[in-house]
Amino acid sequence: MFDLGSFLEWQNSLFRFWRKVFFAALIVFVALNVFIRPVEPHFGLDQYPGFWAVFGLGVGLVMIFVMKRIIQPLIVRKEDYYGDL
Q1: What is the rounded CA–CA span in Å between residue 79 and residue 85?
Q2: How far apart are CA 6 and CA 53, in angstroms?
């Protein structure tokens, strides 16, 4: 039978391996973007190699900032909000 807990523990032990694999894949994709260019770029900046990787990183950082500084203060509750259970 499939044991999800032991599978997740095994994957957690391989964390460094998977991190290296994913970073290597990202580097390969950005390097391939140097050689494989869009035939007709739709925007001005997407003609440069690695633009979409930098764009994705920037949007991700902006989303983290917005969620942490703007959204979280709106939805956070006090520790005893629900009372004693």
Answers
A1: 12
A2: 34
- Token pair of 78 as six digits: 């006090």
Residue 44 φ then ψ, to 5°: -70, -40
Q: Give the integer Cα–Cα distance in Å for 85 and 77.
A: 16
Cβ atoms 56, 33 nearer than 8 A: no
| Residue showing tokens 């044991």 | 3
Q: What is the DSSP letter of 73?
A: H
pLDDT tens digits for 15-44?
Answer: 999 999 999 998 898 888 888 877 787 888
Could you tell me the pTM of the whole model? 0.60
Residue 68 structure tokens: 């942490």
